């Protein structure tokens, strides 16, 4: 799946940004995949929790904030100008296509 400069390969659990590999945990990968599937659409924390965790596991919705922070940090380590994940305060997160 390609979204602008982002390439996700779920079969290999591989993520690339502008050709550089970005190493993500399984949870981070699933969150990013959920956001990138529909660029421009806002995903709530609950929707991202559903995408990343088994329904039998209780996780606080603020955990998503920590995951997003780490995802951004990993992308910024390969591209300091990375800004594709937007926060919509009180609503959720959105992936904007590059």
- What is the SS-derived class? alpha+beta
Helix-residue proportion: 25-40%
* Cα distance spanning the termini: 14 Å
Main sheet strand line-up: 1-2-3-4
Average pLDDT reading: 93
CATH architecture descriptor: Orthogonal Bundle
The gyration radius over C-alpha positions equals 13 Å
CATH topology label? Arc Repressor Mutant, subunit A
| Strand residue percentage | 15-25%
What's the level 1 CATH class?
A: Mainly Alpha
**Assembly state (oligomeric):** single chain
Number of domains: 1
- The total count of strands amounts to 7
Question: Major sheet: size, sense and barrel closure?
Answer: 4 strands, antiparallel
Unreliable spans are: none
Task: From the structure above, extract its key features.
single chain, 98 residues, alpha+beta, Arc Repressor Mutant, subunit A, four-stranded antiparallel sheet, three-stranded antiparallel sheet, 7 strands, 22% strand, globular
What does this protein look like?
By secondary structure, this protein is α+β, with helices and mostly antiparallel strands. Helices cover 37% and strands 22% of the residues. The chain has a single domain (2-95), classed as Arc Repressor Mutant, subunit A, CATH 1.10.10.10. A four-stranded antiparallel sheet has the order 1-2-3-4, with helices on one face. Strands 5-7-6 form a three-stranded antiparallel sheet. The two termini are 14 Å apart.
